[in-house]
Structures are given as C-alpha cells and as structure tokens.
Amino acid sequence: MRLRPLKKHKGWSEIITQCPICGKSGWCAINDEKDIVRCMRVPSDEYIESGIGRQYLHYLNPDHLSQIEIEIVHAESVDKRDDEHLNMVYRTLIEEMKLSSEHLYHLRNIRHLSDHEIAQRQYRTMPTTERYKVAQRVLSRFSESTSLLGVPGFFTQAGNHGSYWSMAGMAGLMIPFHSIKNEIIGWQIRVDEPPLVLDMEGAIKGEVMRELEPTPFGMRRARCKLFVQDKEMEVILTEKQEKVCYSKSNQFVFKVVLKQGTRYWWWSSGSKDNGSSIGAPVPYHLALPTACLPYWNIGESPEGIIDCSEVWVTEGPFKADKAAEALQKPVFGLPGIGTYSLILEPLKHLGCKHIVIAFDADLIVKPQVQKTLELCAEFFAKNTDMSMSLALWDLSLGKGIDDLLNEGYLPQLSVMLE
User: Fold this and answer.
1) Which of 137, 163, 193 is the last residue of a domain?
2) Cβ atoms within 10 A of the Cβ of 254, count?
3) The domain boundary residue, chosen from 50, 72, 94
4) pLDDT by residue (tens digit) across 141-158?
5) How many domains does the chain have?
6) What is the pTM of this model?
7) Beta bridge partners of 177
C-alpha cells in the first residue's frame, strides 16, 4: 500500500493505491495508527465534512494491514493556486495540446458527441511521451518562471542540466472541469489502460506487484503477492479469472480476481516535487448546452444566459456534458456521488429552486448508493429550501443518464423533497 502524508491533516495519509474499505484508489485516507480509514465512497454512521466532500469513518482491526507492505511517498509539494490562476494556465495548456484520433473516435462513436460539441467542450489527450515539451511551451507563454507552481498536474524533476517542468498522470483522454464562473479548475483523465487491482473476499489479503506481458489472447496479467492465513505466496493472475477456495468441509474460504482498477483519475501531482494536489477543495464540473458556451464569459456565472431555477446533478463530467446538451439544462457533474456538499454554495449562487438527482440506474441494487442518496437528501433539506427530485429509469434502457439519452429516452421524476 502506498501512502502520502497529508500536510494539512497531521497524522493522516492519502491512500494512493487501493483503499481497504472501497477497494478504489485516490481520495481516501488512513491514520498513522492504521486503524481508522476515511473512505469517500462507502457510507457509515460516522463521518466528517471536508474540502473534498463527506468522508466516512471506518474502524479497522489493529492487524488488518499487518502483512501488507506499506510504502510512504514523500515529496516537496506545494499548495494549490487560486481558481483564476488555474484557469489561466489550463486554458493556455488547451492551446498547446491536441486530441488524438483514437480519442476523437471514442467521443464520436462511443459517446455520440458531434464534432461541434467536441470542439466546444475542449477535450484533450494526455500524451505518453515528451510531456516536458508541452510544459515548456506552456511556461514560455508566461512572464513568471513560477507560473506552473501550485498548478495540479505540473511538477519538476531532475535532469542532467538541472530541474525542469513536466506533467504527471497516465496517458488518456483529458476532461476539463468548469466552475460556475467558467473557470477551468481541474481535469480528470479517462486513462487508456487502467491499473490492475485485486478484488478479494474472505480470509485473504494481497497486492499487485507488477504487470506482466499479456496472454496470447490479449488478457492482462500480473504477478501478485497473496497472504492466506499465515502463508505468503507469489502467484501470476490473469484478468477476470476468479480463484475461489473452499475448505475440505466445502466452506467458503476466499475469492480473488484480478481486474482493471479506476478508469477516471484526477490530473494531479501532489506526490511529486513542486507538484500540487487537486484537493481542498476538489473541483466540481458545471456543464451547459453548447449553444450557451460562446456567451458564457470567464468570471461570470451563467444565470443570465440560461434558466438556472432547475439544475440537474449527476456523477462525472461526461454524463454532465451529455445531459446538458440533451436536456438543455445546466448540469453539475460531481467527482463522486458522495461529494454533493461541494455544490451547495454554487447552487445557491445560481438561484436554483429545484434539484434533480440523476445517479446511475443501478442505485436500486446498490445499498451503499441508496444510503448516500438518503444522506444527500438529508443534507439539502437541512441546508436549503430547494425542492429535490430523483430521476428514474429502467436499467435495461441504460446504466447512466448519458446511456438513456443516447437511446432517445427521458427519465421519470420522483419527488424527494417538496
């Protein structure tokens, strides 16, 4: 497990690899004693509100991680700059980057976006090589040599002739996050090849050591370290192939599956020298119909160009972009369904009277999502006088609101708060 000490929260570290509670990477944190986890995704009765949203407290047994190797990542990171500066640098970055043909194909044929929408949304591609050249071009357009300092995604690394600026993150499709003032305040990367992780149940612990060459059929493989009872072993696992163990009395012991991990990652560099974390606060994304975008001035909120009395809320920037275009409504894309507190003040600023929650249709089979939805309704009932509805549709028509709209359907609305 890789951990990065949090400067602003002494005694806590960000979990860079898999969280022991939700099994996903990023956002979650663990204390120095390794017996409390602040998980961003799995609700619990105890929680704290933070600059990155609601963090749920989960208590571990003292020996829960005793066999897992802990790696502490130290870096001389810096605090994130203000939104105005981030927007200035990120809009310059847009002019210095391109969209690959592979990602253009994905947006056209998988996401069903028009070329006009793609151009207006300003998606870009994070290249695999020569990122330092992009960083140099961006920096050369500013008078201050420290302009990239405090901008998540950029960092310095040592070279033969001194340190130089480069860009962090895995290769993939870059999606900008816009504030209500049309400032680009962050990016997520839809990575081309998500890292491999272990999905484990029962009396087993483990970690992925390194990825290996794929099988002749293209399946990904990895060498993994597993801990079963008091035994440690190294095994090679192939993606999606379950290994299940039963006792002699046919009692379930454990199951382990190698699978692809998180597809969407923040473009951040908090674990690197002179880099910066995306958090405190984590960005939200406000999407408007493309017809509004030419009239949405930087530094101005959009209630003068579109009716903001009803605002939709979904998870993720792609779904928000798609829903805004199809519904002709302003749509917030949350970085996670538990981060709804991030948009409280933006909703008030927009003059919103009615919130429509449009989470994925499989919420009906996910108790954790249902619990989060209940907490979301409770939060807005306590802090606003806005009414709230839940967008519902049959799962067979599509998982996300974007899938539903692609099929030409609209959701039904069910009142949650009068």
Assistant:
1) 193
2) 18
3) 72
4) 999 999 999 999 999 998
5) 4
6) 0.83
7) 186
